[in-house]
Structures are given as structure tokens and as C-alpha cells.
From TrEMBL:
Keyword Glycoprotein: no
SUPFAM superfamilies linked: ALDH-like (SSF53720)
Family per record: Belongs to the aldehyde dehydrogenase family.
Entry protein name: Aldehyde dehydrogenase PuuC
GO molecular function, one term: aldehyde dehydrogenase [NAD(P)+] activity
Keyword terms, alphabetized: Oxidoreductase
Organism: Hydrogenophaga crassostreae
A Pfam family per the record: Aldedh
Residue ranges annotated for the Aldehyde dehydrogenase domain, each copy included: 27-491
Classification via InterPro entries: Ald_DH/histidinol_DH, Ald_DH_C, Ald_DH_CS_CYS, Ald_DH_CS_GLU, Ald_DH_N, Aldehyde_DH_dom
PROSITE patterns given in the database record: ALDEHYDE_DEHYDR_CYS, ALDEHYDE_DEHYDR_GLU
Amino acid sequence: MMGREDWAGLASRLDIASGLFIEGQYVNARSGKTFDCLNPATDQIIAKVAQGDVADIDLAVASAQAALRDGRWRSLAPRTRASILLRLADLVEVHTQELALLETLDMGKPISDVLNIDIPEVVNTLRYFAECIDKIEGGVTATPVGTLHTITHEPLGVVGAITPWNYPLMMAVWKLAPALAAGNCVVLKPAEQAPLSCTRLAQLFVDAGGPPGVFNVVNGLGPEAGKALALHPDVAKLTFTGSTAVGKLLLGYAGQSNMKRVALETGGKSPQILMPDLYDLDAAVDRAVGGIFDNAGQVCNAGSRLLVHQSLHDEFVQRFIARAQQAYQTGDPLDPATTLGPMVSQTQRQNVQARIDQAISDGAKPVLGGLSPDTQGAGAYLQPCVFTGADNTMRIVREEVFGPVATVQAFETEEQALAMANDSDYGLAASVWTADLKTAHRMVGALQAGVVWVNCFGDGDMTQPFGGYKQSGNSRDKHKDSLLSYMQTKSAWFQLG
Ligand code: NAD
């Protein structure tokens, strides 16, 4: 097995492509500008990345439009498109080490997480949607003799994708795979905090036989390149994963431009409810800890609100802290033994620390971390933090933190637990721990969340539609239905008589 030294050796020899990827090749930004890409574990610059803006978005959209018009992708036989996406999945596997290094150096995620979670999920997503391509069927409806009515599904056109930094490649592929499978051409604007792996994927698409211009990547800042993509009149659909605040802006940009479709996967504040009859407290503690501290809490569905029956509360807090201390040790993310990397940036670390400080001044009690942040030395590291004594009026309970910070609140009755869980602007995910099937079924029905886990947390596969209720978004990634969301139906009524 490879150790830290092996990964560090590979990292030192890594050839990092820093251009935009338009019309099948790396190019500089029209303005010639670049931005610094930092390794958050060391605060060192790892690349100077081309900084695209309106002009580059225009170029990339024009390239995608041209590819759309001449049919170089959408007119290929479905099996041919499928085989190109399957080859791309194979190439991702072949380049696992390189892509994992890019992800770890760029956003600080522990290398073992990238190898065990991100890359396999990227490969599965590409294969799943490739396999769906020739399973899309239209319809013929019942009509009078002498007429024929067909319903067919067609690609939308140019899809703009704007993605976040917490699972850079995986979040992008959740969108790219169905958009490309459906026959669209894509312009992707990855998060500026972690853009490197997505640009490399675009090159791999061409290596797999994908025609130039079908999948373009424009790196750049959100309010410049992202906004230009969202306002572009030739973009038919915008698919977004990121914060609720930016999601709301995008809805406005669509209204100001061409009324493009806007699919949003946004923030979360997911409750994990532990009922008094749960059958294995250690299992619940183990999964609850992972639910909030994996990926340093930088997870949209992070189970940040622990709602624990009062009969279990004190015992739970004790075991939760012990398990968090044992399981999550900060370290060099290139070390396969590291379980807690840095936050994505010093800015994000400071944002999270400010939320912690606010919670303390609001009266919440830190029972793990919080009081003495480790701000010494390089790297955007932050220790896990757990609060008790918080209530639903406090910002730490209401607002998304996007860091390793949990609150534990006690409840007395099921009704109270559900009321606390649903008292949120968000509705991405929730979990319930109970030994009683009837309780589980009742609570799943009452929880306002797009995804509910029973006696587990974070489980799922490609068949699971992923997305939220309320201000957590308006669409679903994964599952074959998401493929149809990148298509439009055409009704054709034939008068045959
Ligand atoms: P963010 O909203 O700040 O940025 C997301 C993307 O939007 C980036 O590419 C950014 O450059 C771009 N952007 C920023 N301002 C823009 C603008 N004015 N116009 C167009 N684009 C703009 O979010 P983030 O900090 O990168 O990611 C964290 C957020 O993402 C959290 O809120 C998290 O919950 C959410 N998220 C949601 C899911 C989900 O599936 N629901 C998954 C992962 C992350």
C-alpha cells in the first residue's frame, strides 16, 4: 500500500494543466489573467489557473453551440455515445492516482477519501448514465384512426453547469454525465477553490473519443465567469450545486436573460434524530459522527443537527465526543491515515470559526473544540466542534456552517423531534434511528426532506434521487429521472388521412 512519502513523491512530479478547455484544447483566458490555486494544507500555490470571464464564456458557449448545430454528438448512435462515456469511465480509473492527487492538493480532502469515495462514485455515475442512453423511450398515445401522436425526448441544447468545491469532480459528474448522455453539449464552470480535476476530465473526454466542443470548461470567479454563463442567452439550462444564496441569484439571472431552466442543488442543515428505542447506540453514534465530520463537515447533507431523546442525551454526548476524538485526527491529507484534512481555504476556516464564536456568544456550550482554535502553523485546519445547550432560535442551529460543527439538542416526544427537525429553511436530508418500523414509517412521512435515512446515514447508490425540499433546491441529481431533466419532450401529431 502507498504511504505518505509515495504520494508526496508523485505529487512533486505532477504535471498540472492550468488552461481553460475549449473546443477540445487547453487555452489561456482571452484577458491573459490567472488566479492562484492554493493547497489548503500548506497555503502554497500549486498552479496559476487561467481566469476566464465573459469573453471566454462566450467562446465556450459558441463552441458548444457549433457542436450542437452540426450534430457531432447528439446525432451519434446512442450506443456510440454510450461507448464514449464508458471509455471515459475507464480512463478515470486508469488515471485514478493523478485525479486523486489533484483533488487532494487542490481542496485538502484526505487522499484515502478521494480513492474510496470520490473516484469510485465518478466512475459509477459515468457508467450508470452511459448505460441509460439507449433505454430512453418515447410514447405513442391513443388517437382516432387516421392520426398518429408520438412523444419523443430531445436534448435541450447547451447546458451550463456551475459546481462547488467540496467534491469537485463528483459534483460536476453528477451533472455532466446525464447532460452528455442526453445528447447536450456542456460548458462547466467549476468552483475557483478547486478547479484542477474538472479541466483534466475534459481532456480525458476527448481522449475517450468525445468530439471537441461538446464538453468545455471555463475556470474563473463566480461573479464573473459564473454570472456570464448564467446570463448567456444561448444556454438552455443551468444546472447548479452550491449555496442557497447563489442559487437565488441564478434564478434572477435566468429571468433577466432567456428564461433558461435552472436546476438547483443547494444548502442543507440536516437533522439526525435518535429515538429512545434505537437498538444500537454505538452504531448510531458511529454513523452520526461520520455524518457531520466526514470531509471536515463540508458536505451539503451534513447531519449537523443531532436531535437526541432526553433519555439518551448525556450518554450520547459522552460517546459522540469520544468517537469523534478517536476517529478524526487532522494531518497531511496526502497521508492515507489522515481522516480530517484542512478546510478548503483559510477564508472558509475563518468563516466557520466566526460561526463558532457567534454560537458561543449566543449562549451555546462547546463540549468539544471551539474555544481554542488551532491557528498556529500552515494550513486551514480546524478541530471538530460540538455544542450542547443550543436552541432553534440560534444561528448555529438555523444556518448552514459547512464545517465540522455539530449541535446536540434533547427532545421529549416524537412530535417535538419532528417539529424541531422541520423548523428549518432547508430540507435536503434527515435520518431517524429507531427499532420500530411503524415509527420509522410515520417519521419518514412527516420529515420535510428530499432524502431520509433510517438506521443509517449517507447511504445510497445511483438509483437514489438526490436533492432537497424547501430552500435546499428544486431538482434531483443521480437516478435515471435526472437524465430526462436534461431533455425536452416533443409531441408530434400526424394527420394521416
Ligand atoms: P457557492 O455558492 O459559493 O459557489 C458554488 C459555485 O457558484 C462556484 O462555482 C462559484 O464560483 C459559483 N458562483 C458564485 N457566485 C456566483 C454568481 N454570482 N453567479 C454565478 N456563479 C456564482 O458554494 P460553495 O461555497 O462552492 O459550496 C458550498 C455550498 O454548496 C454549500 O451551501 C453546500 O450546501 C452546497 N452544496 C450542495 C450540494 C447539494 O447537492 N445540495 C452538494 C454540495 C454542496
